[in-house]
Amino acid sequence: MRAYQCNGCGYVYSPELGDSESGIPPGTAFVNLPDDWVCPVCGVGKESFTPE
Questions:
Q1: Rounded to 5°, angle at Cα 1 from 50 and 3
Q2: What does the alpha-carbon distance between residue 43 and residue 37 come to, in Å, rounded to a whole number?
Q3: Rounded distance, CA 34 to CA 9, Å?
Q4: Residue 33, number of CB atoms within 10 A of its CB
Q5: What are the respective helix, strand and coil percentages of the chain, to the nearest 5?
Q6: Distance (Å, whole) CA 6 – CA 43
Q7: What would the mean pLDDT of 2-15 be, rounded to a whole number?
Q8: What pLDDT score was predicted for residue 18?
Q9: Going by C-beta distance under 8 Å and a sequence separation of 6 or more, which residues neighbour residue 23?
Q10: pLDDT of residue 36
Q11: Do 5 and 46 form a contact (C-beta atoms < 8 A)?
Q12: Could you read off the pLDDT of 12-48 as tens digits, one per residue?
């Protein structure tokens, strides 16, 4: 699975790790994140992420 980087702050969403702070379990692909998921560091939406 591909990692995605936030264009706002540089945070990298890694599917292997998920996002425990937001309740996203490991193994969740970026495309399967909820539409209202935001960067846990700076709060921008999924549209502000690009694949690494």
A1: 30
A2: 9
A3: 20
A4: 19
A5: 15, 25, 60
A6: 10
A7: 98
A8: 98
A9: none
A10: 97
A11: no
A12: 999 999 999 999 999 999 999 999 999 999 999 999 9
DSSP H helices, the chain, are none
Q: How far apart are CA 33 and CA 25, in angstroms?
A: 10
CA distances from 13 to 10, 32 (A): 10, 12
β-bridge mates for residue 50, sequence order = 5
- pLDDT at residue 3, as a whole number: 98
| Distance, CA of 47 to CA of 35 (rounded, Å) | 10
3-state secondary structure at position 14: coil
* pLDDT at residue 30 in the model: 98
Task: Give the C-alpha separation, 8 to 5, whole Å.
Answer: 9
User: For residue 10, what is the DSSP state?
Assistant: -
Total residues found in the chain within this entry: 52
